[in-house]
Known about the structure:
Elements: H1 3-8, H2 11-18, H3 27-33, H4 41-55, H5 57-65, H6 73-76, H7 82-90, H8 98-115, H9 133-144, H10 148-170, H11 176-188, H12 209-225, E1 229-232, E2 238-242, E3 251-257, H13 271-285, E4 293-299, H14 312-317, H15 336-343, E5 360-368, H16 373-377, E6 381-387, E7 389-398, E8 402-403, H17 415-432, E9 437-439, E10 443-444, E11 452-453, E12 456-465, H18 468-489, E13 492-501, E14 504-505, H19 508-519, E15 527-530, H20 535-539, E16 545-550, H21 567-583
Parallel strand pairs: 3-4, 3-5, 5-16, 6-15
Antiparallel strand pairs: 1-2, 2-4, 6-14, 6-16, 7-12, 7-13, 8-11, 9-12, 10-12
Helix pairs in contact: 3-4, 8-9, 11-13, 11-21, 12-13, 13-21, 17-18, 19-21
Bound molecules: (2S)-amino(hydroxy)ethanoic acid and manganese (II) ion (2 copies).
Amino acid sequence: xxxxxxxxxxxxxxxxxxxxxxxxxxxxxxxxxxxxxxxxxxxxxxxxxxxxxxxxxxxxxxxxxxxxxxxxxxxxxxxxxxxxxxxxxxxxxxxxxxxxxxxxxxxxxxxxxxxxxxxxxxxxxxxxxxxxxxxxxxxxxxxxxxxxxxxxxxxxxxxxxxxxxxxxxxxxxxxxxxxxxxxxxxxxxxxxxxxxxxxxxxxxxxxxxxxxxxxxxxxxxxxxxxxxxxxxxxxxxxxxxxxxxxxxxxxxxxxxxxxxxxxxxxxxxxxxxxxxxxxxxxxxxxxxxxxxxxxxxxxxxxxxxxxxxxxxxxxxxxxxxxxxxxxxxxxxxxxxxxxxxxxxxxxxxxxxxxxxxxxxxxxxxxxxxxxxxxxxxxxxxxxxxxxxxxxxxxxxxxxxxxxxxxxxxxxxxxxxxxxxxxxxxxxxxxxxxxxxxxxxxxxxxxxxxxxxxxxxxxxxxxxxxxxxxxxxxxxxxxxxxxxxxxxxxxxxxxxxxxxxxxxxxxxxxxxxxxxxxxxxxxxxxxxxxxxxxxxxxxxxxxxxxxxxxxxxxxxxxxxxxxxxxxxxxxxxxxxxxxxxxxxxxxx
Length: 587
Ligand code: HGY
Ligand code: MN
Ligand code: MN
């Protein structure tokens, strides 16, 4: 079916073609068609989402209850609709083991008893190739713990995903570049520092062997895509350059980071490297040259995990690499200088990385949102307005070790008590502003004993807000509280500020191009700030920047193995970026 047919054919002709999109609920299609014409099938999809959203809770429950149970009794009675039948086959649910079948059944039953509606999951999964029975069992176990209201929305999210896959089949819409980007990220995730195979998780910190493997993988794929130059610079960034028609043309820079936090997801950073690479692959295969060069930077370090030198890689490009960072040691006592030498990098060449901004038109970055906004909005893409500013501290508290049994509560100098009080104050203070955040992500009592009052403890603080004044007001109050706790409890705090980066409003001109690129897809433009930090906020210091966000699944969870994004959403990000590149003109 073409868009023209969707917009012009009679309802009577269209309904049979769109039958079965929403299980036994063609009224959603009918009511949505009443709002024709649609600029694209994306707009039509969103129209159906809105039709259902406006119909209210009773309509949602009727629809949810119209869905077949996964391999439940319904399957045996073979009353599954044709679509569900084929979908369950694709997921390999038709051939799960006896214990998997048993687990699915008991989970189904527990779910039905708790929520009084069937468990619904888009069994074709984020890549469209089908979830394994294990994936589904883990999803059921996780979702069983949710509240009923949350699960009603989660069921609807999965129903819309099922509809999207069914509609794509009917209109023969494929996501070749989205699939390629998805698969590249899957392949890159094989390189990791945590070899605990039972607990499959992803950790890639600066200049580790896994980090080197990632750099080589990215460089190899860049060469295959047709970049004219591929190189690795003195801090480990992998840089691909795709020349313009005119060799004297300036460059648009794009990219993101490939290092990760510990136990990370697969898409944070990496999506922003592979999306532009897929664009170059497409341009090269068509022999298309742009009126500007395209420089794709795979930043080697953004997360500040191995060394407290966050945004180290983008800082090298802005000429803000701090030579003192070279002396920093990691948890094994290896200095950054030694790590660079072992990796084959020459710190003397770092100064050469600084970009001559007269050669650049600006910086754009594609990144997963890493939050729940787009997911809850049921929108695939978002236009970033500004990147929140943040400050980070590494801290130590020195109290007095003494006997847990004999030391009266009022005479203690307990490092843990002091930090616990501070942690709750941080939460309380951040909650006072609508959009400030304060996090104590690291906390440890070295050589602690169960029957000894902790003398020492280490912790971290990460404080962020949409503007620097608001951020600094939160920090100020927290530092005052630390003083008050320290005096009252007679413990000593030692703080080191490891990061202070300003909020970075996105460039309005570049945002206009992203806006038009999103509208070209027939999508409404949804704008939002970025709570997460990005390389763009460092590059912001030397050139205009703007970002495109891609929806995260599982409520946009990130810095967590549950981080997920569909290849269809990645396809839209690719198409939006291609629109941007085809529209953008050097001013
Ligand atoms: O912490 C952040 O915002 C990013 O992941 N570095
Ligand atoms: Mn991150
Ligand atoms: Mn990131």
